[in-house]
Amino acid sequence: MAEAGTEPHAGGSATELFDRATAALSAVGTAWILVLMVLINADVFGRFLFNSPIAGVPEIVELSIVGIVFLQIGHTLRMGRFIRSDAMMAPLIVRRPRIGHLLQAFHHLVGGVLLGIIFYFEYPKFILAWTNNEYSGAFGVFTAPTWPIKLIILIGCFCACAQFLKCVVSDLRIVGGASPDLPQPAKEIPDL
Predict the structure, then answer these.
(1) Of the chain's two ends, which shows fewer C-beta atoms within 10 Å, N or C?
(2) Given CA atoms 1, 112, 5, 73 in this order, what sign does their dihedral have?
(3) Which residue pairs from 51-58 have beta carbons closer than 8 angstroms and sit at least 24 positions apart in sequence?
(4) Cα separation of 144 and 39, whole Å?
(5) At 8, phi and psi to the nearest 5?
(6) Which carries the bigger pLDDT value, residue 38 or residue 188?
């Protein structure tokens, strides 16, 4: 179910640019998944057919999972696909829109604060990884620097935090008297 206030609406160029940026980051994450699938399959076939695995695949997968999640988190939230339970929220938004959107604004505010906290505590780790040239892997076999993933985490946290705050503003606008141009909650999907 799509969350109200999470889909893009007509707005300023800064909002449109931000929405395009989150979509582009998500597309990079999707392409990264495809490359990772090819790499994993090549490693499996290399092990099975030629007894020659590709060095560093476990380390690449380990770093990639974190990177992909943070590349896609902002766009996922924007499109209303962020994981949450709608058992209480969806009916409340339909029956009592102002109360539902007020509660949803609080939910979005908490999400934004949590992503801001992650950003705050990850920033020094990024600086440390950058200055100390930290790496993951086994020296002499395969090593990869960790700062690019830490930078992706920071970018993802910033985008998701900003998206959560956009959702708070949208919800509060609805609480204050819904604007007709804002998206309304999606209808329940019927059981099959």
Answers:
(1) C
(2) negative
(3) 55/141, 55/142, 56/137, 56/141, 56/142, 56/143, 56/144
(4) 16
(5) -65, 145
(6) 38
Question: Please, which residues have CB within 8 angstroms of residue 115's CB and are 6 or more apart in sequence?
Answer: 157, 160, 161, 164
- What residues contact residue 114 under an 8 Å CB cut-off, 6+ apart? none
| Residue with tokens 């606008």, as numbered in its chain | 173
How many other C-beta atoms lie within 10 A of the C-beta of residue 120? 10
How far is the C-alpha of 117 from the C-alpha of 161, rounded, in Å? 10
Q: What pTM value is reported for the model?
A: 0.81
- CB–CB of 86/12 below 8 Å? no
Query: What are the percentages of helix, strand and coil residues in the chain, rounded to 5?
Result: 70, 5, 25
Distance CA 161, CA 180 (A): 25
Predicted confidence (pLDDT) per residue in 167-186, tens digit: 999 999 988 885 534 444 44
Check: CB of residue 103 under 8 Å from CB of residue 91: no
